[in-house]
Design a protein that fits this description.
76% helix, single chain, mainly alpha
């Protein structure tokens, strides 16, 4: 059985994911600071980081689903 399967996860894809997730987290961390109902900077940062981490997790799931659908679409065209 000589299957010519490609690796689904490579170092390059992990690096791209890490960069995208870091940029997404920092972007939403900064955006959400003005929406945290607190007065102390420490609590503002904690609330913003907690919310941005949840949103980053959802973004990661959406990114992985997009990759699966894109791979299926490309393979079905062949």
């Amino acid at each position: 059985m000589a299957n010519s399967e490609q690796k689904l996860v490579t170092r390059g894809s992990l690096a791209v994911d890490a960069v995208l997730l870091a940029v997404f987290f920092v972007f939403f961390f900064e955006i959400l600071k003005s929406h945290v109902p607190a007065t102390e900077p420490m609590w503002i940062n904690i609330g913003s980081a907690y919310t941005a981490s949840c949103l980053t997790g959802v973004f990661w799931l959406a990114l992985q689903m997009f990759r699966v659908v894109l791979r299926f679409h490309r393979e079905s065209k062949k």
